[in-house]
């Protein structure tokens, strides 16, 4: 994944992380991939002043059903992207296409039957995408 993101950056392609996970965890992944924190869309944890867990920020688009699609729509409007490709391993990733123009199912961590069966393009290793970038 690190090599794929690096090659995309070399080509001037912006990479975003859109996750139903929590910002504080996704930020660590973004740091390893040289993805700016401004390009992360994830749920945010909330804490009381005394440090106790207070829940999560329900105003984030990723906190609601169809939220990943809302993020894609927002990105297309904000940056005027001609094409947006979504790569993911879950049903909520697949559901974000449309508004994403293409969905690539990923089964490198876990193979979800529904995603594998419905994705037009399904990969199990990012080397497959790296080969496509070379062509």
TrEMBL record:
<dbReference type="InterPro" id="IPR050582">
    <property type="entry name" value="HAD-like_SerB"/>
</dbReference>
<keyword id="KW-0460">Magnesium</keyword>
<dbReference type="Pfam" id="PF00702">
    <property type="entry name" value="Hydrolase"/>
</dbReference>
<dbReference type="GO" id="GO:0036424">
    <property type="term" value="F:L-phosphoserine phosphatase activity"/>
</dbReference>
<keyword id="KW-0718">Serine biosynthesis</keyword>
<protein>
    <recommendedName>
        <fullName>Phosphoserine phosphatase</fullName>
        <ecNumber>3.1.3.3</ecNumber>
    </recommendedName>
</protein>
<comment type="pathway">
    <text>Amino-acid biosynthesis; L-serine biosynthesis; L-serine from 3-phospho-D-glycerate: step 3/3.</text>
</comment>
<keyword id="KW-0028">Amino-acid biosynthesis</keyword>
<dbReference type="InterPro" id="IPR036412">
    <property type="entry name" value="HAD-like_sf"/>
</dbReference>
<keyword id="KW-0479">Metal-binding</keyword>
<dbReference type="InterPro" id="IPR023214">
    <property type="entry name" value="HAD_sf"/>
</dbReference>
<dbReference type="GO" id="GO:0000287">
    <property type="term" value="F:magnesium ion binding"/>
</dbReference>
<dbReference type="GO" id="GO:0005737">
    <property type="term" value="C:cytoplasm"/>
</dbReference>
<keyword id="KW-0378">Hydrolase</keyword>
<dbReference type="GO" id="GO:0006564">
    <property type="term" value="P:L-serine biosynthetic process"/>
</dbReference>
